[in-house]
UniProtKB/TrEMBL annotation:
Similarity field: Belongs to the plant self-incompatibility (S1) protein family.
Location(s), subcellular: Secreted
Main location: secreted
Pfam families, sorted: Self-incomp_S1 (PF05938)
GO CC entries: extracellular region
Name of this protein: S-protein homolog
GO biological process: rejection of self pollen
Domain of life: Eukaryota
Keyword S-adenosyl-L-methionine: no
Organism: Hibiscus syriacus
InterPro entries, A to Z: Self-incomp_S1
Keyword line: Secreted, Self-incompatibility, Signal
Signal peptide positions on this chain: 1-18
């Protein structure tokens, strides 16, 4: 009984509230290009939790989104590869340890992909550039 109590205390201290309680997050990748009507943004995502999520071709303004429910089993992520106009970039669209806090009170993790790079927002109003295509 003491072991169970210690384990519960350890888990409640070690994990953030979102990780421990199974919080749900909304993840979106948005094609934010201003003039690419003939060249879609191709996205393909996989995760340790859901496996291969398949690919999509996003036209200007389109988005690809999914919901993530955290669990107590660890830090899993969603890796996406994007291609556009001969460019290719892979990035983690969501990782529990990194995003359980930064996705804000709305639990929204959004990526806006533009010609000059990848922007993150937790409210889809304030965007911050995180990296370029190269």
């Amino acid at each position: 009984m003491l072991f169970v109590a210690c384990a519960i205390i350890f888990m409640s201290v070690y994990y953030t509230a979102g990780q421990f309680l199974g919080t749900e997050y909304e993840v979106r990748v948005i094609n934010g290009f201003s003039n690419n009507s003939s060249l879609p943004l191709v996205i393909w995502c996989v995760s340790q939790q859901d496996g291969d999520m398949g690919g999509r071709a996003l036209q200007e303004g389109d988005d690809y989104g999914w919901r993530v429910k955290t669990n107590i089993w660890g830090d899993f992520g969603y890796l996406c590869t994007l291609k556009w106009d001969g460019k290719r970039r892979s990035f983690e669209a969501f990782r529990v340890g990194r995003d359980s806090r930064r996705c804000g009170p709305l639990n929204k993790c959004s990526w806006l992909v533009k010609e000059d790079g990848f922007y993150f927002s937790s409210d889809e109003v304030n965007w911050k550039k995180h990296f370029s295509w190269c």
